[in-house]
Specification:
Strand content: 5-15%
Helix content: 55-70%
Order of helices and strands: HHHHHHEHEEEEEHHHHEEHHH
Structural class: alpha+beta
Largest sheet: 6 strands, mixed
Radius of gyration: 30 Å
Strand order of the largest sheet: 1-3-2-6-5-4
Oligomer: single chain
Number of strands: 8
Amino acid sequence: FYSVLSSGINAEYGGITTAQEKRKELSRSLGEITRDMLPAMKRLLKNQALNCLILGDIFLFIGVGAYSYYPKLYAKIFRLDYRSVGRVMGIANMIGFGVGLVGSGLLMRLRKWEPKDLQLVYAIVATLAIPWTFGSLYYCPSDTHAGVEISYEQVLGNNASSVPTLLGECNSGCGCTTAFYTPVCDGNITFFSPCHAGCSRAVLDDKEIVVAYEDCACTASGSAIPGVCGTTCPSRLWTSMSITTTGTIVGFSGFAAHAYIYQRVVSEVDRTLAQGMRSSITRALGTLPSPIIFGWVIDKFCTVWRVSEDGTRGNCWLYDIDNLMLWFITMRVVLRCLSVTCYFICWWVYPESTKKVEGEENGGEKGEKNAI
């Protein structure tokens, strides 16, 4: 084994046997790579079509980062537990990605595409995928929380102009906190907890499980039941998921075309470096900041934070769902529009002849000259 390995190394390095000669050869090769890399980077930075593609992908990747928050949002807007959300989104994503990728392959087989024409097709496909994003706005009606959207005085019919606060006169002596969210319902009004509803007595069943609360000073009926008032809306859930899944299918139907264009937009000698540059830039400027941006937006619409007994702020319990979803989807649509604009500009500046972007098969001066 050692002799075979040694012979392989000697063949690789031209018969070099000493460690010093090996280091010298490796150093020389690295130096050559560095010298070749600088003019290649210069060519890529001057490539207008490539730069437009990368800029479009940056905007696209920032928008795609919003998907990391979708399980949390879907659990809120459709009143589902995380297990159900994971199952529903898993099915939708498998269908969307799978059918979309198959469609992208069929699109490539329709005809022998010129790169410039294919870029136009991809830009159009990306544009057609944008309207389906609004399907996420078709969700269950938002719950009305006493002390958040409506004041306790309004619930009791005493004062219609008072400002909503979680602590009011009806629960002032209860010592309520937001350390735990245990909602109770009275009619169509949800209260943050039995304490915030001013309840002083719990009704238990034979299994010692709370089934109701009585003597509630903040509720209109004087009683409440555990849980939020709203119910699940399966028809809206599946309608919304069908719309967004269709958008995923449309968007991913251009996946193969997009990958092919990246290979043809530069000369052959620059393709590997172009892929590395694309991967590094889109992840550094798109994938990494995206969760931070969308996380900041989500936190801006938090209405009730978890505050422990020592005053430490934790996670968010309640959100202004309507405004949050409107901003969330609007940001995604704007980012997709910016991305599509860059793709159309790429098509506009793309050379008519494929020879101008393919370069020479063997590289060299002609390959460098013919690169955009």
